[in-house]
Amino acid sequence: MISRARSIWGEHRKTILGVVFVIVLVVALGRWMISIPSWPVWTGFGEHNLWDVLDLLIVPIALAVVAYFFRQAERGDERRIAEQRRATDLEIAEDDRREAALQAYFDRMAELLLERKLRESKPEDEVRAVARARTSTALRRLDARRNKNLLQFLYESDLTANDDPLQILIGLDLSGANLQGAILQGANLQNVNLQGANLQEADLREANLQEASLVGADLQEANLRDANLEGARLSWAKLEGANLRKANLREANLRGAKLLWANLRGVNLEGASLLWANLQGVNLRGVNLRGTYLSGANLEGAKLQDANLQDANLQHASLQGAIVTPEQLAKAVSLEGATMPDGTKHD
Fold first, then answer.
1. Distance, CA of 239 to CA of 95 (rounded, Å)
2. Which parts of the chain sit beneath pLDDT 70?
3. CA 44, 64, 18 angle in degrees (round to 5)?
4. Cα-Cα-Cα-Cα dihedral of 261, 262, 267, 273, to 10°?
5. Which terminal residue of the chain has fewer beta carbons within 10 Å of its beta carbon, N or C?
6. Rounded to two decimals, what is the model's pTM?
């Protein structure tokens, strides 16, 4: 009952307030009229017919105004219902379009595999270019669920593995694709454009993402264990809670990346750029940070025991509360302007 009343108030707040205002106005007008001891003769309202005036005018006017406001509210409800119906119809139509597009992709790929001998084709053959173009287009247009189905088809057709001679996914433009929860374990995604893609909770274990563009990609909770991300572009990527254990991030660009709660155990970050990256509280114990660019990075509370900081650039980095020894920091190429573990500023 209370929730229903709250719902009505939320939907018709303006109407209810308007009705209350009119009622208050009518009551105030009535009190004012009653307070007049006598009316001028020219008005035609003597003091004996004042209540008649109130009965004849004020109450009908109030009822008319109330009815008007409620009618407006009803029209608003009708408009909202119509808009919701249109939105639902559009959503159903879009869902049907995506399903049709997926089925069309399956049919066309089956044709390329069975009739045009895609597997026996040579690198310069047109059939390979057609297969790659259709795959790229489909993966960018479909939703997450259907993309998972598409990738499962490629996986079962042995078209995603590192040793696949067709290399169907290499260098594809998948910018903005919705690949949430996609299973891409061991897939060859070398030089793929995944800029702005949704890869939340994706399984990318042992995947080859060398030189791939993941700028601004959402990789929260993604599994990148043992993945090859050497030279990958991950600037401003969201990697909160990602599993990067034993991943190769050598010379990767992680500028402004968010790595809170990420598992970086055994990761190789040699020569990587972590400019302005957020590594607050991250466990970097024993990690290879040799020559890593950490200027302006947030390393507050980070665990850096046994981490290799040889030639690392920690200029203006925040190390407040970080677990690291003076001997480790002495190996850094620069600590200029850095906030030290004790909170002091380094000259």
1. 30
2. 1-66, 68-70, 72-73, 164
3. 115
4. -90
5. N
6. 0.75
